Amino acid sequence: MLTKKAQYAFRALTVLARRQQRAGKEELPEWMSAREIAEASPMSIKFLEQILVELRSGGVIKSRRGPHGGHALSQPSDQIVMAKVLRMMDGPIAPLACVSLHYYERCEDCAEDDCGLHRMMADVRDAQLAILEHRTLADLTYPT
Questions:
Q1: Which domain CATH number covers 124?
Q2: Long-range contact pairs involving 54-57 (C-beta distance under 8 Å, separation at least 24)
Q3: Which pLDDT tens digit goes with each residue over 2-33?
Q4: What average pLDDT does the segment 123-135 reach?
Q5: Cβ atoms within 10 Å of 14's Cβ, excluding its own
Q6: Residue 92 CA: distances (Å) to CA of 39, 42, 46, 72, 79
Q7: What is the DSSP letter of 67?
Q8: pLDDT at residue 109 in the model
Q9: β-strand pairing of 61-64 with 70-73
Q10: In angstroms, how far is CA 21 from the centroid of its own chain?
Q11: Total-model pTM
């Protein structure tokens, strides 16, 4: 299940992606303040500001100060992979640490080679990654 943090991050990124798309077609700045983002997709501005800091640290957005500043995507929306953002916000995608590709931890009391749950959750992880590693932020702005 997505946390509220991940949901807000994807909503904010969708707002920025749509702005980026319109800025390329119109005389519209691509930069948006946190307040503008929160107004475009209603959410807590304090929580949003924390999320924007993490997205900037992760290289997904860029920020600048000043009257014409704000936040913008650091690259085109079709290059921002959903799995990267999800890991940034929520950590492991895998349902169990023993099947995680990036956050692996061995189970203390389980023989992974003989564990049916391990095998099943590895399949669940693979199914999720088959989607999340091949979908981008642009997929949230257009019908599939």
A1: 1.10.10.10
A2: 54/9, 54/88, 54/89, 55/9, 55/12, 55/13, 55/85, 55/88
A3: 899 999 999 999 999 999 888 777 666 689 99
A4: 94
A5: 19
A6: 30, 27, 25, 26, 21
A7: T
A8: 78
A9: antiparallel
A10: 18
A11: 0.86
**Whole-angstrom distance, CA of residue 107 vs CA of residue 21:** 45
Check residue 144 and give its pLDDT.
Answer: 44
Residue 31: CB atoms within 10 A of its CB come to: 18
Integer CA distances (angstroms), 106 to 40, 103, 111, 112, in order: 43, 10, 9, 8
Structural domain boundaries enclosing 57: 4-141
Cα–Cα separations (whole angstroms), residue 81 to 12, 47, 48, 128: 15, 22, 20, 13
pLDDT in tens, 77-124: 999 999 999 999 999 888 888 888 888 888 777 777 778 888 898 899
> What's the total number of domains in the chain?
1
pLDDT at 113: 73
